[in-house]
Prior knowledge:
binds glutamine, Aspartate Aminotransferase, domain 2
Amino acid sequence: MGKELVVEALRPFGTSIFTEMSVLANTHGAINLSQGFPDFDGPMEIRARASDAILRGPNQYVLSHGIPALRRAVARKMKRFYGVEVDPETEVTVTSGATEGLCATLLGILEPGDEVILLEPCYDVYPPLSAMAHARIRYVSLEGPEFALPREELARTFGARTKAIIINNPQNPCCKVFSREELQFIGGLCAKHDAYAVGDEVYEHLVYDGGRHVTLLDVDGLRDRAFVISSTAKTFSMTGWKVGYVIAAPELSRAVRMSHQFITFCGQAPLQEAMAFAMGFPDAYYKGLLSDYVTRRDRLSGALSEMGFKVYAPQGTYYLIVDIRSLGFDDDVEFCRMLPGKAGVAAIPCSCFWNNRRRGRELVRFCFCKKDETLDEAIERLGKWFG
Ligand code: PMP
Ligand code: GLN
């Protein structure tokens, strides 16, 4: 006893903020607008497919890189939504959620001492995964209320040791959607420095106000330099299934598959089958998903604005952030630790998504992937406290 057992690389990281805030929400019986998961399940037909597959069997290991039907469905999706041709045999690897896809990618390509560029505020798993690969992290913060890409700083940060940059588009938690032009700028830097672009595109179908998602595989110069990681979690409202995938050129996919086979070996067979079916849903499904989220976004953002919060209009994802200074607060962590007990609602402090925790202290994230009645109840509770 007494000697720290946790490996050095992981020591700077505490319990995930999503766990901390969900536990706090449960302790206080608060409405959980912190951790991003829907309080409704995805379509019954998908669940019926999975349950048929379980009852019918086999319930055994499948090919390490995923069942052919799902890999083909991913390839069809890339053609259908982005016009990108993908070979399901050599370019798609099914993983246990996007999280494992990120892990397999980073552990498959990073050597100790390689540099990884992260754009802040960045999703919580990128720093620890990079650290586990013994990479050196270079942080670049997006700027101002628009979360603009600081091009000069980014160009200066790229160098001979840069192995990869992670681009989360749409970006959690700041809800930014990158333009094609911004992605082309990043693509140019990757080509110049012989670096890879790792795209986390799990919110690809949640882009608002006529914006369009641009996948890294469709950016000039990135077709053979990008790893595109996505997931069925948000698109089909089944975050507990953990069916994700990585799409990349054959040589790149080989690196992902190499590590993936020693992390989980393969994903969950019946759930892969059900998601292969789901991905072929007609356009009406995807349009309905988006329009339902527009309604939820407007409901929550309208109410928070009325309470006096400065709300940043999200360009994508199912989150929105508010500036708590407009209501006289200045410490997001304090605010979020107080909120479940005082107001009966939980949210996420955004400073956790910066390496320098002094940044983002004025920002708090609420998720709106909830039933109307849940959002209404949350609004009522917040209204009593702040109204
Ligand atoms: N990336 C981002 C940006 C996320 O917000 C999340 C959480 N939903 C994930 C990855 C994790 O996806 P999965 O549940 O498929 O592992
Ligand atoms: N992606 C979810 C969020 O941002 C959290 C997922 C998790 O708990 N790891 O809220």
